[in-house]
């Protein structure tokens, strides 16, 4: 094969991506501006024909130094950063951060606020899964489903706009509660949405899940066994699609999730189809949780926020704490350390997408390039969360 001068062989990453001993292979880039990478993710692949011999994700194109910002802002000022970390499940990140600080400062949360947190977080989980569903199918060549998904998701955004004042990068959680209570119209709107969505799911199953074209693109593709999940720390629908029955809401209980009757969907296929089925069932289980929370909400004690909730000049006591919750993409973990001042001494974020993406290089080896798109979509990556 013709060998150009090194100075002409792409950028620094490509030049330092070590090519295998076979001179017949080709190095190509997927991204950072590629429809199937959903953001600015770049993957360098060494191809042998249509098969991937090696793949290497390259990050850093949207890094915003969230953790470093946490060392320069006050405890309060860092709250909006959580909505910018994972813009599709901002509620999950907000819940995790306030949980870590509340444990550190021993802040009590009213019972009503806990219910409001659960309702908002589960609604946001459904909207995240709906967007994944539509975008994944768009990646695989089906255009119609994303129009249905966006129509349903818009209803959730309309609902959450009332208590939060925003439609995407939510900052609803506060230390000791939430920003605002919900109205009767919101409660009725959520009940109406659940009834509406349950009527839509059979159509989605007939249109997409049972579609032979989809099944040919996802069944037997991207096999992730339990051992690979454990080696890379995969969580969420990725590990539950590999037969690992683990969910923070049940296995590391927090908030009031232990009061609800819901099932943790687990599939044993280990392929992209198994991960698809887990997320579809998770939407139904989130609706079950929301229904129970709405039923129990009128009898909950307290208001939407504690009377003793910290003010903006709040100083967390010296010490350290860690909290974990179940996000739409897996286990969200936040470690906070305080020296007793208004500003955190250290904040460390555990993003589930980072671990889930880490296994891609091993997983993609030996697969066809076209299947890499299906595998990436099945991981449900949100790049700002991974880059942070």
TrEMBL record:
Q: Supply the SUPFAM superfamilies for this chain.
A: HydB/Nqo4-like
Q: What does this protein's UniProt record list under function?
A: NDH-1 shuttles electrons from NADH, via FMN and iron-sulfur (Fe-S) centers, to quinones in the respiratory chain. The immediate electron acceptor for the enzyme in this species is believed to be ubiquinone. Couples the redox reaction to proton translocation (for every two electrons transferred, four hydrogen ions are translocated across the cytoplasmic membrane), and thus conserves the redox energy in a proton gradient.
PANTHER family the record matches? NADH DEHYDROGENASE [UBIQUINONE] IRON-SULFUR PROTEIN 2, MITOCHONDRIAL, NADH-UBIQUINONE OXIDOREDUCTASE 49 KDA SUBUNIT
Instruction: Specify the protein name.
Output: NADH-quinone oxidoreductase subunit D
Subcellular localization, as worded in the UniProt entry: Cell membrane
Q: Which UniProt keyword terms apply here?
A: Cell membrane, Membrane, NAD, Quinone, Translocase, Transport, Ubiquinone
Question: Where is it mostly found?
Answer: membrane
Q: Which residues form the NADH-quinone oxidoreductase subunit D domain?
A: 139-388
Report the family membership.
Belongs to the complex I 49 kDa subunit family.
Q: What is the lineage of its organism?
A: Bacteria, Pseudomonadati, Thermodesulfobacteriota, Desulfovibrionia, Desulfovibrionales
Which top-level group of life is the source organism from?
Bacteria
- Coiled-coil stretches noted in the UniProt entry, renumbered to this chain: none
Name a GO CC annotation attached to this entry.
Answer: plasma membrane
Task: Give a Pfam family name.
Answer: Complex1_49kDa
- NCBIfam families hit by this protein: PRK06075.1
Its catalytic activity?
a quinone + NADH + 5 H(+)(in) = a quinol + NAD(+) + 4 H(+)(out)
- Under Enzyme Commission nomenclature, its number is 7.1.1.-
GO MF, any single term: quinone binding
Whom does it interact with, and what assembly results?
NDH-1 is composed of 14 different subunits. Subunits NuoB, C, D, E, F, and G constitute the peripheral sector of the complex.
Membrane topology type, per the record? Peripheral membrane protein
**Broad class of enzyme this protein falls into:** translocase
């Amino acid at each position: 094969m013709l060998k150009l001068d090194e100075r002409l062989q792409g950028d620094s990453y490509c030049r330092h991506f070590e090519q295998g001993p076979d001179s017949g292979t080709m190095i190509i880039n997927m991204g950072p501006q590629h429809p199937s990478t959903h953001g600015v993710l770049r993957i360098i692949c060494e191809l042998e024909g249509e098969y991937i011999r090696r793949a290497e994700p390259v990050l850093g194109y949207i890094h915003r130094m969230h953790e470093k910002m946490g060392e320069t802002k006050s405890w309060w000022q860092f709250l909006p950063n959580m909505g910018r970390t994972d813009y599709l499940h901002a509620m999950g990140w907000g819940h995790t951060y306030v949980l870590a600080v509340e444990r550190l400062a021993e802040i009590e949360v009213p019972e009503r606020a806990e219910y409001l947190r659960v309702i908002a977080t589960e609604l946001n989980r459904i909207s995240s899964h709906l967007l994944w569903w539509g975008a994944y199918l768009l990646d695989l060549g089906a255009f119609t489903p994303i129009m249905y998904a966006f129509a349903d998701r818009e209803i959730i955004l309309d609902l959450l706009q009332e208590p939060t004042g925003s439609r995407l990068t939510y900052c609803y959680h506060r230390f000791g509660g939430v920003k605002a209570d919900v109205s009767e119209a919101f409660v009725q709107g959520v009940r109406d949405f659940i009834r509406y969505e349950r009527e839509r799911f059979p159509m989605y199953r007939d249109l997409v899940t049972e579609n032979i074209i989809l099944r040919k693109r996802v069944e037997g593709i991207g096999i992730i066994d339990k051992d690979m999940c454990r080696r890379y720390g995969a969580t969420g629908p990725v590990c539950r699609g590999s037969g690992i029955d683990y969910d923070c809401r049940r296995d590391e209980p927090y908030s009031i999730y232990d009061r609800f009757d819901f099932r943790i969907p687990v599939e044993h296929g280990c392929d992209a189809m198994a991960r698809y089925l887990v997320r579809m069932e998770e939407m139904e289980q989130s609706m079950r949780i929301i229904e129970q929370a709405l039923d129990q909400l009128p009898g909950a004690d307290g208001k939407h926020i504690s009377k003793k909730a910290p003010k903006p000049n709040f100083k967390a006591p010296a010490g350290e704490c860690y909290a974990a919750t179940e996000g739409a993409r897996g286990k969200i973990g936040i470690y906070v350390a305080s020296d007793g001042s208004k500003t955190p001494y250290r904040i460390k974020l555990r993003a589930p997408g980072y671990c889930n993406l880490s296994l891609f290089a091993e997983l993609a080896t030996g697969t066809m390039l076209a299947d890499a798109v299906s595998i990436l979509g099945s991981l449900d990556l949100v790049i700002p969360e991974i880059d942070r």
